[in-house]
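[job 0412] stage=fold_complex status=start
inputs:
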Amino acid sequence: MRMNKHPNPPRWAQTLLRWWAHPDTAEEVQGDLLELYDHWVRTETSDRQGRRRANWRYSLSALKLLRPLAQLTHRSSRYADYYQSPLSLSPAMLRNYIKIAFRNLTRNKVFSGINLLGLSTGITVCLLIFLFIMNEFSVDNFHKNGKNIYRVMRGIENEGKETAVAYLSGPYAPALLNDFKGQIAQAVRVNPTDALVTSEDQSFHERKIIDADPNFFTFFTFPLLKGDPATVLTDPASVVLTESTAKKYFGTIDNALGKIVKIDKSLAVKVTGIAQDVPANSHLDFDLVVPLENYKDRSWMNVWINNGLYTYVQLAPTVSEAQVERNFPRFVDKYMGQILKQAGFHFNLSLTPLPAIYFEQAAFDSVKHGDKKVVYIFLSIAILILLVACINFMNLSTVRAVERSKEIGVRKVLGAIKGHLVWQFIGESLLLATFACVLSIGMLVLVLPFYKQLLGYPLNLSVYALPILLFLLAIIVVVGFLSGSYPAFVLAAFSPIQSLKGKLRMGRGGTSLRQILVVVQFSISILLMLGTAIGTQQMRYLKNKQLGYNKEQTLVIPIDNDDIYNFFLGHKDELLSQNRVEAVSMMSGEPGGFFDGLMFDVEAHPTRWKARTEFADFDFVKTLGLKLIAGRDFSPQYPTDTARAALINRTAASRLGWTPDQAVGKWLKSTLRDSTNRIIIGVIEDFNFLSLKEAIEPLVIAPNSDRRAALIRLRPGGNLTATVAMIQQLYAKTRPAYPFEYHFLDQQFDQLYKTDLRQQTIMSVFAGLAIFIACLGLFGLATFSAQQRTKEIGVRKVLGASVGSIVTLLSNDFLKPVSIAILIASPIAWWAMSNWLQGFAYRIDIEWWLFVLIGLLAIGIALLTVSFQSIKAALVNPVKSLRSE
Amino acid sequence: MKRAFLGEFEEVVLLTVAILDEGAYGVTITQEIEQQTGRSVGFSTVHTTLQRLEEKGFLSSTMGGATAERGGRRKRFFAVTAAGRKALAEVKQVRTQLWDALPPQTLQLMGI
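[job 0412] stage=fold_complex status=done
writing structure:
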């Protein structure tokens, strides 16, 4: 009797059999039983009874065949050779995998191109940042005793805030060695300076000279090409040149040895050693090393309270930093207790480990510094950009899976298990990552010159060859697994029947995950864009901020030698008589330069008060174009002004609790520099004499003679070069040994923000790259989606849809994630950038329109990327798209 | 020489495989035994016996091609090996000897 519905044995019995029957014979047993079942059903007369009986017999047989009951045989061993397990690592399979991988790469050039370009750009950015970070952290790591070397810092506590200063005076080092016997093994004093160096008949103004104790070359590890590190500086009349300095003076190193050079025309020293050029990753930088012994009579070598040089100590290996620091207060009290009490200062000594000196930005010193915050910012950018590139890879790979579904089906039917496929796809992504790495090395070599320029210092690739290699290996593994694992698991889970029938649809889950990934990508890009935009706005604001003084058309001439000092002292009137020169002033610190912080006794104030101080001549206010808001300026009509008068700024007046008018007539007196009280004769409007990152501090301007810089203010208009040449001629008439060196005040101002501007530029380049990579991915997705929906678009067009509506349809899918990304990124950017802005005394308000602008920009870029594909798809003649197949 | 012992059911199965020649596999063997002997045999019993015989070396087996009606599963075809034929011949010879040794009156009693 035939049945309409084909009868099936009970499912539970089938399942049991499948799971528990002996694997070696499972196939034929299942087949045989199924056949018998059919037979049993057919041979029974009654339909219902027959099925029941057949079911019963089937189940009974199945149960009897389950493994613990069924006889175990030794078949397995015999079948081992026969049924060789499909080994995915056999050479033939490997060859096949690689072949297929290459075919896939070449078949779909657009996708492979996007994948490779995105990944390699991301990796290149990572490499660049990696180089930067490596370089930052490699500073000073070449010193043999580096672990035990510390720099002694002098902290000045004032109003609860401590400022650490690196400059100490000469007596510290011997006293430290004496008082900390056994704890401090060695000490070396280093005085960074500049001087005129004369060799044979040439003179050079050398800016990188250090005066150091004789043990300098054994203390630090600056290798000597000639000379013995232990004795090279023992004789006061000796000097060590670096290789390039020696070549500059004498042509060759061998020529230089034993020659005499003159420092500042007076001190004759013999070249006793040649040092290798100082590497870029050293906080100390020098061209010449002169024994400090030559300057033992200077005040900064003898007077405790003075300052001028760095003091480094090397602790004994067993001694800790804290052990030494614990005894510092007693040390300070012993040597300086009296004078500190008299001046109202309080010193705290501390130790900074050698590797930390480079990142010790707050220290007032002239050595090279880096910013740890920037390192972290760059590090996070690198990670974010790599993530964006990886997401591209993931999205495009999963999307392409549909095309590869047939391959997956065939593989599965031919016996591939999930594990094989997972490894195949991870392997492919490893392969692609390797390609991308090779490409990125090429890119790196191409962009390195520009990068060096952006960074402003040289990077030596060969030094970092090994770390780069290791880094790339790590990148390959991380990128390969990160971006390969998701597609691998999605693809490997395909059911072979569906994939072979071509019925496969990417599940809803796949689509939404892809969209989430796009959201992440664009959030990162928008975050970087917003960060860059706000950063740029802030820097522009700083540059254009009203400084309160005139920085245009003003020459700054550092007074760092006697020639220039005497020129300004003796020829000021002559300079002023030139019709192009408006004003000339000599001072202790030009705006943006260094301003001493001194303690003052002030009228009606019981406690001492700290203020920044400017020692200037009478023309200071005029030259800088400052505004007087109360009282009068210094004037030659009152000869007593030099010793008895002072100007203060508005902040100083308000800090002292006076209005500007009240302040005039009160007295103050520097505890260190003045012998008599100074009467405040006037109050000037605040101006930004420090960096704009800092708030305006109280300032006292007093006509003491401490001349470190001269400003020449020129009248507007006229030929600048000619005027400068004219001033140079005047200077040349005094027959100076030193060349005339100058720069413009506005240049110097820009210099202050040079690092920030550089980092801004690098940031914006990286932000641009991030959005570029994200758009590449979007472009790929759009291409795919347009391809997938060719038929749908054709049908829509046939039914009367307009091009516009189709473009909207296709673009909408992609605009949604971008819009969500804007919503996510904006608050994060707002929070992060407000934190960053806290570091500036003068800052912009973050404005809402910026977010709107960047949001629109992101949408615009995304739309542009997507619309290229969607318009193309929408314009296709439906006849073409519908005719295929 | 230790002779392989051939059980009664084993002998039946072995003979059936020999009868079916090319087409001997689980289902046909079971059905043939049912038909020839008229007794109901469980598939599992046949399957286990076939395996035991193969292990003893009396049967050899090969997998056939895929078929449509069994859910795409292949059949395992059995064939009697030389050892199997020899064992069958021996069993038969022993039987004949025994029959021959039977006294004529007993045979008459049995009605043969």
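[job 0412] summary: Chain A is about 55% helix and 15% strand.
[job 0412] exit 0
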